[in-house]
Specification:
Distance between the termini: 21 Å
Order of helices and strands: EEHEHHHHHHHEEEEEEHEH
Number of domains: 2
Largest sheet: 7 strands, mixed
Strand content: 15-25%
Number of helices: 10
Structural class: alpha+beta
Helix content: 40-55%
Oligomer: single chain
Strand order of the largest sheet: 2-9-8-7-4-3-10
Shape: elongated
Length: 261
């Protein structure tokens, strides 16, 4: 196989526009996606489904206390999923933005709008906090139903994983056993690739033959540039391409270390 064995790269800082031009010049194929990103990068996060479970437990008590619990955890389950989608789509500029802004940017990159969730869950929860109004059983039930619908409707996004490599030149394999996953690495092929380094929060264009990496920090991208990047990566889901789905962030980190990228 035509590959590069002696791996040692020089790093050159680039403008975000140059990185996006490089991405546009590469075929959107051989994509590596990471699953479980929020679970491994944000160790303290509980899953959306757990918050939804607690919301249902609250409403089952059929008390004012239980209805308040149901609203609180319905909101939290939705917010957890929204924040996961922000993370999966590399929208780092938006991680600390208000939820209406997060909802808006997710809509811009192609996810279905969720304004009704904001009105009936997030706004209702905020009203509860600031006006001390009583929550009816119906309000709590609607909040749970909407949260459940949203978690179900976006589950395929979680299963797709977060795209971290385009036009991969990694030569590797995985094997699975009762003891876990083993990964072997056999060098790089010769063609360039784009790597979104979720650990260093950088996007890199890797040139194996030239032994050069052009990179830019994700926080150096403007809002428009980061939206463009995310939208471009998401077009992969509508393309036919060979993909490595299911690689864990831990395995991805190992690939970066073994390849010196």
């Amino acid at each position: 196989m035509n590959k590069v064995d002696d791996i040692f790269f020089s790093k050159v800082k680039a403008n975000p526009s140059d990185i996006l031009d490089g991405l546009n010049n590469l075929p959107l194929q051989d994509v590596i996606s990471c699953k479980g990103l929020a679970d491994e990068l944000e160790y303290s996060w509980l899953p959306s489904e757990k918050y939804l479970e607690w919301a249902k437990k609250g409403i089952s008590e059929k008390t004012d206390y239980g209805f308040n619990i149901a609203i609180t955890f319905s909101k939290r389950s939705v917010c957890r999923r929204i924040d996961t989608l922000i993370l999966y789509n590399h929208l780092y500029n938006y991680r600390n933005k208000p939820y209406p802004t997060k909802i808006d940017v997710l809509t811009k990159i192609g996810l279905k709008p969720v304004d009704i969730l904001h009105d009936l869950i997030i706004s209702l929860r905020n009203e509860l906090e600031h006006s001390y109004k009583s929550i009816s059983e119906r309000d709590a039930q609607v909040a749970i139903q909407l949260a459940e619908m949203y978690i179900d409707a976006t589950q395929h996004e979680i299963e797709n994983g977060s795209i971290t490599v385009v036009n991969s030149s990694f030569l590797f394999g995985q094997s699975f056993s009762s003891h876990g996953c083993s990964l072997w690495f056999n060098g790089l092929s010769r063609h360039p690739m784009v790597v979104i380094d979720i650990f260093q929060q950088e996007i890199k264009i890797v040139f194996p033959v030239e032994k050069e990496i052009k990179y830019a920090k994700l926080n150096s991208f403007s809002n428009d540039e980061i939206i463009y990047l995310s939208t471009k990566l998401r077009t992969h889901y509508n393309e036919t391409s060979r993909s490595y789905h299911g690689i864990s962030p831990r395995a991805f980190k190992l690939l970066l270390e073994k390849s010196s990228i």
